[in-house]
Amino acid sequence: MTATVTAADLAQAEVDLTSEETSLVKVLVAAADKEQTTVRICGGWVRDKALGRVTKDVDVALDNCSGSAFAERVVEALAAGLEGGDARDAALAASSTIGLIAANPEQSKHLETATMRLCGVEVDFVNLRSESYADAGDSRIPTMAFGTPLEDASRRDFTLNALFFNVHTRRIEDFTGRGWEDLRAGLLRTPLEPRVTLLDDPLRALRGVRFASRYDFSLDPGFAAACLLPEVRAALLTKVSRERVGKEVWGALATSPAGAARAVDELRRLQLASATFRGVGAE
C-alpha cells in the first residue's frame, strides 16, 4: 500500500485503492450519475489511506442530497447493473440493507446518517453540512444545514481530518488549504481559530489528545494554548456528557504503552486532567 503522504505536492498524491475500494468507488460514481451528485469520501479514511494504514470504515459526503436518498440510489444502481458488471451486482442490491442512524448530538451524530455494507466496506452517507453554535448556553449541539465543501471542512476538528477524496477524479481535495501540509508534518491544527473551535465543542480538546497519542502527532501551539484557557476547561465540564468524555479517554489510553503515557502527559500539560476525570463513571 502506498503511503501517499510522502508526496509534497498534493496534485501528485496518488491514492492506492484496494480491490474492494475500487469496486466501492465504481458503485458510488454510478449512483451519483442520475442527479449529478458530487460524492466525496471524507475524514479518517482519507487520513489513514494517506498514511498507508488499513481502514474498513468509510464516511461519504454528498453535495445535493441526503444520505438516505443517496443510499437508495446505490441500491438502484446495483440492481440496474454497473457497466462491465454481472449478476453479482443484482445479488448485492438484493442483499443490501440500508440502516438509518437517527440524529443524536450527544453521540456526535448531528444529522441522520444512512449506513450500509457495500463491497465489503461499512459505509455511512450524509450530506455536506455547515454548523453554527449558540453564542451562550451549555450545549455543544450545533444548528445544522446543507453546506459547501469548504463549510464542511471548516467545521471539522482538525485540518488533517478535513481532507476529502473525490471519487470522480480520484484525487484528494484540501479545502482548508492546510490539511495536506499538516498531515505531512503530523500537526494537529484546527481549521478555525482554536479558542472558537474548542468553545463550540470542547470535546475536541480530548480528541487532540487521542490523535496525538494514537498517531504520535504534535499539537499546534495555538491549540495547546486554547486548551489552557479556564473557559475551555469549564465548557468541557458543562457541555460534554461524561460518557463522551470517557470514550475519548479510553481511545487515547487503549493504544500502546507509549501512546498511553503520551496521553497522560498531554492531559497534564494541557491542564485537562481535572475536567476530564471529574465525575467520569458517575452517570
Features:
283 residues; alpha+beta; seven-stranded mixed beta sheet; 44% helix; 16% strand
Report on this structure.
- The protein has 283 residues and is α+β, with helices and mostly antiparallel strands.
- It contains 13 helices and eleven strands.
- The protein has a seven-stranded mixed sheet with strand order 3-4-5-2-1-8-9. The chain has a two-stranded antiparallel sheet with strand order 6-7. The chain has a two-stranded parallel sheet with strand order 10-11.
- α1 packs across α3, α3 runs antiparallel to α4 and α8 runs parallel beside α11.
- The longest helix is centred in the first third of the chain and has 15 residues.
- It is globular, with a radius of gyration of 19 Å.
- About 2% of the residues have low confidence.
Summary?
The protein has 283 residues and is an alpha+beta fold. The chain has helices spanning 19-33, 44-50, 67-80, 87-95, 149-154, 179-185, 194-200, 203-215, 221-227, 230-239, 242-253, 257-269, 273-277, and strands spanning 39-42, 57-62, 99-101, 113-118, 121-127, 129-132, 143-146, 164-166, 171-173, 187-188, 218-219. The strands form 3 sheets. It has a 7-stranded mixed sheet.
